[in-house]
Amino acid sequence: MSFMSDDNLADTWRRIILGDGKSWVVFAHGTCVVLPDPEPGVDLAAQAVEILREYGPVHVGSPSADFGTVTLDPGPGWAVYGHHNDVLTYVGPDEVSDDSDLAVGLYGRHKRNRDGHELTVVHVEDKRAR
Description:
The structure is a single chain. The chain contains three helices and six strands, in the order H-E-E-H-E-E-E-H-E. By secondary structure, the chain is of the alpha+beta class. The protein starts with 5 loop residues before the first helix and ends in a 5-residue tail after the last strand.
């Protein structure tokens, strides 16, 4: 398993997120909260923290434990999504030895859970019109 630097995480999400007008915030374990239409003057990091505080932690037997995976094209890696459409977690190919949807999804869910508890912002991409 490898560790991605904050810059590498930001570069990875720049490649993944489509649409020049979407602002987004990345957390320490690779979870990204997309903020498609934030209000002017709002603190993007604070808004993303509030979303991830609610939608990041996993509670077994609830919708928060559900997940799906998207193989990135172009790759490498996967985006793991859950019960909030704007919360995604990146899983790189060097982070999992089994590339099945189940293994990738469980690992991505684990990373989202950590980010949902730790709430450590590592990058803010502000795409609001100036």
